[in-house]
Design brief:
Elements: H1 3-19, E1 23-24, E2 28-29, E3 35-41, E4 44-50, H2 52-57, H3 67-78
Antiparallel strand pairs: 1-3, 2-3, 3-4
């Protein structure tokens, strides 16, 4: 998995989100090699996750998932 490409895609999403008025944290590389970003809007936080599957598709589909959901994947990867 090319983490550098995923981080660049995530960084682009952060810049675009901030330009749209969203609170966006800096990208974080997850243990499974994906890259996560937390987005905040109207008092709610949502996590975005960039994976190689998205990178290879040529487009980015954003799926909002909870922090708990991301942690469950991280836990599963460590089992």
């Amino acid at each position: 998995m090319n983490t550098a490409v995923l981080r660049q895609q995530a960084r682009t999403a952060v810049i675009e989100g901030r330009n749209a008025g969203l609170g966006m944290d800096e990208p974080v590389t997850m243990k499974d090699g994906s890259v996560g970003v937390t987005m905040r809007f109207k008092g709610k936080a949502r996590s975005l996750r960039f994976t190689e599957e998205l990178s290879n598709s040529g487009s980015i589909d954003i799926w909002a998932v909870s922090y708990t959901h991301l942690r469950a994947h991280e836990t599963k990867a460590n089992l």
